[in-house]
């Protein structure tokens, strides 16, 4: 049982990231040769550093390691590394046991020592090739992950508790419309809060994995901020906070930028400004445009500044904690307001992805000013009036094909459409949708609302097949994607397949109708 020495030929790979190694005859409790440490000159013998000689006793080495009181838990270390434990592991078929412990080195600090034992046989003796690694970064990442999960669990449970509570209250007051409506309003607000937490977690994970890419296109900076105000107005209304916006110093309202990510950055900052501003306070947003000697040709700078008269922050907090995940934990006890969460961390990382800057000026008790400095490519022509203006046509009485495998989502979307006088046909997967379109007369459907992830045939495959139909009118029917995936590459995949629009779930009724009107 175990590796034969001739099979144990991957030592070079193991040593590529090691801090040291030693080979031990476990059966005879003896070192085979020296202990080696990794230095700038490569691996050099260091057995003498432990007060030992070549081929010394293995347990003697273990005792020397714990002698200087450097290990956090000596007993655990000695038990895991002992010859008896290693022989028992070998007999039980455990050929690569591992152990780790924290080590304190005077003048250097703490680091996590990980020992990996590769057990094999040589001339009937059990031999261990022992590799030492500095495991501090991996341990820190594991601890951060555990803390992240703990904080996420806490933050998710807060709105979930409100959702459950207000649902029960709404049922209780079903015959009292005013009270029931108040519960439903708070239920909606809690749902939005929960969705933001989930979106933040996904965004942070994708940023850290390097999977976030910019989706730049022509966009209007003023329209972007107007949509932002719509998103935060209920949050501000709850605290009677006035929001002022000043865009007079903007000459080029349209530029080339990632509208969704810019909106996300500013939304996170404005949302935090409202959260940390007391009732009846003020939050202002100003946009200025400028160009200086460092601005590349064909580009222009935009400074979006968010100011509030809230609780403010110390310089130390701004410098060392503001952009940590869930950094609000540091201020909750002082302000009574619960956390910054992931918002500021995401804002900073997204703006850095755009080669922009995030500047923070704050003073405790007086408020905070955050400036987002963007550099966008200019559009060399004037676009005219608002391109989202109504076409003046009505969609009442038209027929739409709704393709959605989830019954609850289908019910909600059908209710929205039927409330506008739209006739709704349904399909539960892409194959059913394709069959209905092939069987109907050309022009039957105004458009198709297509879920993306479905059984039998997904929305992307169904779209490709619809676009390849021989009937030109059927093949050109507008198709709008409805998906829970809010990532750039998913949108690109849908548009490449031939879809005309893209909606991210949960979908607001007004947004659904707006997209339908724009397309048709």
Describe the overall structure.
- This protein is of the alpha/beta class.
- It folds into 4 domains: 3-134, Beta-Lactamase (2-Layer Sandwich); 139-208, Signal transduction histidine kinase, dimerisation/phosphotransfer (DHp) domain (Helix Hairpins, Orthogonal Bundle); 217-378, Heat Shock Protein 90, CATH 3.30.565.10; 399-519, Rossmann fold.
- Helices cover 41% and strands 25% of the residues.
- The chain has 17 helices and 20 strands.
- It has helices at 11-15, 58-67, 74-81, 83-91, 136-172, 177-208, 221-238, 259-275, 315-320, 332-335, 343-353, 407-419, 430-439, 459-467, 472-475, 488-497, 509-519, and strands at 3-4, 20-25, 30-31, 36-39, 42-45, 98-105, 109-122, 125-134, 217-220, 242-249, 254-257, 282-290, 299-308, 357-363, 367-378, 399-403, 423-427, 447-451, 479-483, 501-504.
- Strands 1, 2, 3, 4, 5, 6, 7 and 8 form an 8-stranded mixed beta sheet that branches.
- Helix 6 crosses helix 11 (343-353), helix 7 runs parallel beside helix 8 and helix 8 (259-275) packs antiparallel against helix 11.
Care to give the gist of this entry?
With 520 residues, this protein is an alpha/beta fold. The chain is 41% helix and 25% strand. It is extended and about 90 Å long.
């Amino acid at each position: 049982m175990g590796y034969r020495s001739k099979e144990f030929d991957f030592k070079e790979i193991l040593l590529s990231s090691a801090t040291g190694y030693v080979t031990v005859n476990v059966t005879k409790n003896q070192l085979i040769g020296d202990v080696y440490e990794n230095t700038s000159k490569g691996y050099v013998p260091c057995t003498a550093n432990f007060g030992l000689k070549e081929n010394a006793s293995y347990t003697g080495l273990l005792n020397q390691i714990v002698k200087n009181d450097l290990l956090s838990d000596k007993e655990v270390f000695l038990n895991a590394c002992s010859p008896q434990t290693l022989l028992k592991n070998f007999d039980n078929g455990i050929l690569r046991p591992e152990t780790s412990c924290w080590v304190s080195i005077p003048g250097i600090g703490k680091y996590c020592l990980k020992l990996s034992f590769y057990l094999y046989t040589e001339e009937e003796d059990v031999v261990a090739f022992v590799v030492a690694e500095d495991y501090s970064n991996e341990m820190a990442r594991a601890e951060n992950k555990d803390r992240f999960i703990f904080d996420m669990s806490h933050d998710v449970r807060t709105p979930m508790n409100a959702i459950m509570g207000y649902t029960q209250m709404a049922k209780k007051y079903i015959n009292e419309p005013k009270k029931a409506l108040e519960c439903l309003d708070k239920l909606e607000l809690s749902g939005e809060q929960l969705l933001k937490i989930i979106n933040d977690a996904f965004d942070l994970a994708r940023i850290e994995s390097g999977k976030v890419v910019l989706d730049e296109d022509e966009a209007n900076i003023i329209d972007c901020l107007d949509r932002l105000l719509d998103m935060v107005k209920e949050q501000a209304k709850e605290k009677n906070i006035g929001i002022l916006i000043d865009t007079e110093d903007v000459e080029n309202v349209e530029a080339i930028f990632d509208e969704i990510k810019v909106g996300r950055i500013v939304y996170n900052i404005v949302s935090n400004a409202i959260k940390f501003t007391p009732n009846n306070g003020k939050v202002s947003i100003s946009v200025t445009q400028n160009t200086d000697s460092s601005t590349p040709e064909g580009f222009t700078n935009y400074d979006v500044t968010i100011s509030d008269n809230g609780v403010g922050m110390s310089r130390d907090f701004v410098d060392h904690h503001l952009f940590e995940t869930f950094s609000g934990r540091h201020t909750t006890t002082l302000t009574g307001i619960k956390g910054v969460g992931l918002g500021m961390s995401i804002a900073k990382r997204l703006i850095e992805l755009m080669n922009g800057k995030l500047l923070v000026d704050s003073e405790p008790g007086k408020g905070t000013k955050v400036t987002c400095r963007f550099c966008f490519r200019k559009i060399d022509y004037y676009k005219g009036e608002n391109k989202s203006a109504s076409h003046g046509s009505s969609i009442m009485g038209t027929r739409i094909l709704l393709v959605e495998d989830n019954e609850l989502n289908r019910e909600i979307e059908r209710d929205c459409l039927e409330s506008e006088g739209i006739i709704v046909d349904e399909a539960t997967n892409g194959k059913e949708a394709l069959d209905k379109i092939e069987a109907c007369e050309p022009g039957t459907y105004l458009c198709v609302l297509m879920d993306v992830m479905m059984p039998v045939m997904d929305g992307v495959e169904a779209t490709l097949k619809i676009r390849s139909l021989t009937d030109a009118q059927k093949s050109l029917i507008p198709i709008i994607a409805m998906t829970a995936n809010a990532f750039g590459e998913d949108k690109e995949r849908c548009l490449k397949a031939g879809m005309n629009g893209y909606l991210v779930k949960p979908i607001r009724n007004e947004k659904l109708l707006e997209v339908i009107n724009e397309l048709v």
